[in-house]
Write a structure and sequence with these properties.
Blueprint lengths: L11 H13 L4 E4 L10 H11 L4 E7 L6 H14 L4 E5 L5 H6 L9 H15 L23 E3 L4 H7 L5 E3 L7 H17 L6 E10 L4 H13 L5 H7 L5 E3 L1 H13 L4 E6 L4 H11 L4
Parallel strand pairs: 1-2, 2-3, 3-4, 4-5, 5-6, 6-7, 6-8
Helix pairs in contact: 1-11, 2-3, 3-5, 6-7, 10-11
Length: 293
C-alpha cells in the first residue's frame, strides 16, 4: 500500500494513522514516492517518521531520484533509515519524469539518464560497503543493517531501462497506467531474461497503479480528480482524455479479480496507489489484501 503523500491538506495525524494501519494490516510493503516541485512531504524526512511509526511492514521508496541528491549524503540518509527501521528498507530508484524537479534543486536535467543513475548507485554501494570514497579519516557511516545496503529496485516502464538495471537492482518497482496485462507480462519476461543473463537469479517483479474503490461513477471521478492534481505538468485537456482509462476504479470484488490477474502473470507485489487520503479506502483495500495472505 502506498501512502497518500500526493493528496492535499495532509497533516502528521493523517500520515501516522495511515502508516500504523498499513503496518497492522495484511500489506507486505508500505510505499511512497519522491517529488520536489509539489506540496508532498519530503521523501527522506518522511522515511524517518515511517521507521518510527511501524514495526513489521517493509518500507519501499517508489521512487527516489538519485540525481536530485548528493550520492554520499543519500547513501548516509538511507543507511540511517535502514538502521532506524532495523533492516526493513527497500529502495526504489528512478530517473524521474519531470525536469521541474531537477531545476528546483539545481540538478542538471541532462543527467536524467540510466547511466547517471547507475553511476550514483555505484557510489552509494561503495559507501554501504564501508569504503572511503574521499580522503577522510573514517568512511561515511553508519553501516546499514542489511549487509551491502538495502535492496534496490528500478522504477521503470521500459524494456531498455529494465535491461540496464539488471547489474545492480534486485527487481522492478514499475507502474502501469492502463493495467494492460499483456504489456506487463512482456516487461516481466524482459526482466527475467535480463536477470538470468546477468547471473542474478529471479528478479522481484512489482508494479503499481492508482486505485479508487466504490460503487457507480464515484470511483472513476475520484481517480480523475487525483490525476488532474497530480499530473499538473500535463495540459488539463490531455489529462481529461487519459482519465477514463488510467488507473483502476471499481468495487472491492472487482479489485480482487484484477489483482488475481496480475498474480497470474507472475507479479510478486502490486503497490496500490490511493487517490484519496480517506482512511475508508485503506480499510476496504486491507479487506481485499487479506484474500492474498
Amino acid at each position: 500500500m502506498t501512502m497518500p503523500v500526493m493528496e492535499p491538506d495532509l497533516d502528521a495525524t493523517t500520515l501516522e494513522r495511515w502508516a500504523r494501519f498499513i503496518d497492522e494490516g495484511p500489506f507486505s510493503s508500505l510505499c511512497w514516492g519522491e517529488r520536489i516541485a509539489f506540496d508532498n512531504p519530503d521523501c527522506l524526512t518522511l522515511l524517518g517518521a515511517l521507521a518510527a511509526w511501524t514495526r513489521r511492514v517493509r518500507l519501499v521508496t517508489t521512487v527516489v531520484v538519485p540525481q536530485l541528491h548528493d550520492p554520499v549524503l543519500l547513501a548516509k540518509a538511507l543507511a540511517t533509515a535502514d538502521l532506524l527501521c532495523e533492516g526493513r528498507l527497500t529502495v526504489g530508484l528512478g530517473v524521474g519524469g519531470r525536469h521541474e524537479d531537477y531545476r528546483a534543486v539545481g540538478a542538471d536535467p541532462r543527467t536524467q539518464t540510466m547511466r547517471a543513475m547507475a553511476d550514483r548507485v555505484a557510489v552509494m554501494k561503495r559507501v554501504w560497503a564501508g569504503e572511503k570514497v574521499t580522503d577522510s579519516v573514517l568512511p561515511v557511516g553508519p553501516r546499514p543493517v542489511q549487509p551491502g545496503g538495502p535492496p534496490l529496485l528500478v522504477g521503470t516502464t521500459g524494456p531498455k531501462t529494465v535491461r540496464s538495471a539488471a547489474s545492480w537492482a534486485v527487481g522492478l518497482a514499475g507502474t502501469t497506467l492502463d493495467l494492460d496485462l499483456a504489456k506487463q507480462r512482456e516487461l516481466f519476461d524482459v526482466a527475467r531474461r535480463a536477470w538470468a543473463e546477468a547471473g542474478r537469479g529471479a528478479p522481484h517483479l512489482a508494479t503499481s497503479f492508482w486505485f479508487a474503490i466504490g460503487e457507480g461513477d464515484a470511483p472513476r471521478a475520484q481517480v480523475h480528480a487525483h490525476l488532474r492534481r497530480y499530473l499538473n505538468w500535463i495540459p488539463a485537456e490531455y489529462v481529461d482524455a487519459m482519465a477514463p482509462t488510467t488507473g483502476w476504479a471499481g468495487t472491492a470484488d472487482q479489485l480482487v479479480e484484477t489483482l488475481r490477474a496480475f498474480q497470474d502473470i507472475g507479479a510478486d507485489e502490486i503497490h496500490l496507489i490511493p487517490t484519496s487520503s480517506d482512511i475508508d479506502q485503506l480499510r476496504i483495500a486491507a479487506e481485499v489484501a487479506e484474500q492474498f495472505g
